[in-house]
Write a structure and sequence with these properties.
The protein is of the alpha/beta class. Helices cover 35% and strands 14% of the residues. The structure holds adenosine-5'-diphosphate and magnesium ion.
Length: 430
């Protein structure tokens, strides 16, 4: 299917989509929108930047549209980070501006009272981070007992960030009769486990093999001694005239330190990570988007889910410990078909991480030494590519529903449909 109209979206939503300038649905939108409109539970995986927000927001709006404004929360979207919550709510607002439905966003790190006041005025669609949502509920500011639709966005990241207990608590507050959607970059074993517990015979849609890097991203490794990394980064920013570069560090402390060094070198830099206040994070991100901040230095968790349009390049100042994070990081560039560039500054002690990444993405990364920064400690060559095959994971079966607070089945009539489309290879093999 090649148009939004063919997916079954209503006139008002088609107008909203046209106003956004979207010409046709992205693959994940094509696959996810119809089953969501049909009332199915859906678990969807597609890499970052592929339009997952609209894939759940558009059909969500359509499902709520008929009954319209009722003054209680009918749909809840949970996201792992504050930035992401704000971005998702912004999309809800934009796509839903002709719908008459009201939305609001709540997250921690800012005053709770204005949020309580806002909820009192009536909201149909709530976007929230888990902690603040539970706080608000605990204070009696929020009722979720008439909820119709739950969305867990960036579910894999929520698990990584340790939100599983909060998620369980939240789900206990919701009616069993509801539609549940889960969006994620990958389907991990843990994600399937979560789905088995909280969803009813979900339709699975997956449009990219997990952990494949976007083909549009050109990648390089610059071997360099550890202590010379900051100088190399300053050199690159100036030499290549980068006006907007997202830089990843492994730790918050590392992010702060690097930001200071860059500033000393005359580069406008800001750090974004979990220890920063919400205001500081928003300011840093705004500055970056407006071009006042040249280098945004971020940890993995802070960077996940940021929607920064057409970021020309990302730099891995440190390689991540978890190879999958490399894929998420470079997914920040080369979005929506635009060419992107990813540069990794790699010191000899990071050889293992580098090999792990090359194994995951199944290709060696080209290395290039930069004049004046040739390392004393040589980065070992990559080992010949060995395809590491893990045993195929068992296909997700109809859950046994143990420990579930959902009925054992038959709540809604279900088609036993499992689409697993797009580029095919979507599970087990990585
Ligand atoms: P994801 O959640 O998969 O990381 P987002 O939902 O944040 O991706 O979307 C990434 C970008 O793509 C956003 O800037 C969004 O406006 C844009 N986008 C989404 N759907 C379409 C579409 N059908 N056509 C063009 N751009 C789109
Ligand atoms: Mg997203």
């Amino acid at each position: 299917m090649s148009t939004f109209a063919e997916l079954g979206l209503s006139e008002t939503l088609l107008n909203a989509v046209a106003e956004e300038g979207y010409e046709k649905p992205s693959p994940i939108q094509t696959r996810a929108i119809p089953p969501v409109l049909d009332g199915e539970d859906v678990m969807a995986a597609a890499q970052t930047g592929t339009g997952k927000t609209a894939a759940f927001t558009l059909p969500l709006l359509q499902r709520l549209q008929d009954d319209g404004r009722v003054g209680h929360v009918r749909a809840l979207v949970i996201t792992p980070t504050r930035e992401l919550a704000a971005q998702v709510e912004d999309s809800v607002r934009r796509y839903g501006k002709h719908s008459g439905l009201r939305s609001c966003v709540v997250f921690g790190g800012v005053k709770i009272n204005p949020q309580i006041e806002r909820l009192k005025r009536g909201v149909e669609i709530l976007v929230a981070t888990p902690g603040r949502l539970l706080d608000l509920h605990g204070q009696g500011a929020l009722k979720l007992d008439q909820l119709e639709l739950l969305v867990l966005d960036e579910a894999d990241r929520m698990l990584d960030m340790g939100f599983i207990h909060d998620i369980r608590k939240i789900i206990k507050l919701l009616p069993r009769e509801r539609q549940t959607l889960m969006f994620s970059a990958t389907f991990s074993r843990e994600i399937r486990e979560l789905a088995r517990n909280f969803m009813l015979d979900p339709v699975e849609v997956s449009v990219t093999p997990p952990n494949s890097t976007a083909d549009t991203v050109k990648q390089w490794v610059y071997p360099v001694d550890k202590k010379r990394k900051p100088a190399l980064l300053s050199h690159l920013v100036k030499d290549k005239q980068w006006h907007q570069v997202l830089v990843f560090t492994r730790t918050k402390h590392g992010a702060n330190r690097l930001t200071k060094t860059l500033e000393k070198d005359g580069i406008a830099a800001a750090a974004i990570h979990g220890n920063k206040s919400q205001n500081a994070r928003t300011r840093a991100l705004d500055g970056f988007k407006r071009g006042k901040v040249q280098a945004l230095v971020a940890t993995d968790i802070a960077a996940r889910g940021l929607d920064i349009d057409q970021l020309p390049q990302v730099v891995n100042f440190d390689l991540p410990n978890v190879a999958e994070d490399y894929v998420h990081r470079i997914g920040r560039t080369g979005r929506a078909g635009a060419a992107g560039h990813a540069y990794s500054l790699v010191s000899a002690d990071e050889a293992d991480q580098l090999h792990g990444i090359e194994r995951l993405i199944k290709k060696p990364l080209p290395r290039e030494e930069i004049e004046g920064f040739e390392p004393d400690h040589v980065l070992p060559e990559g080992k010949p590519q060995q395809r590491q095959r893990r045993p195929q994971q068992a296909r997700h079966g109809r859950g046994a529903n143990s420990g579930d607070n959902r009925p054992a089945g038959g709540r809604r009539r279900r088609r036993s449909r499992r689409s697993n489309g797009g580029s095919g290879e979507s599970r087990g093999n990585r």
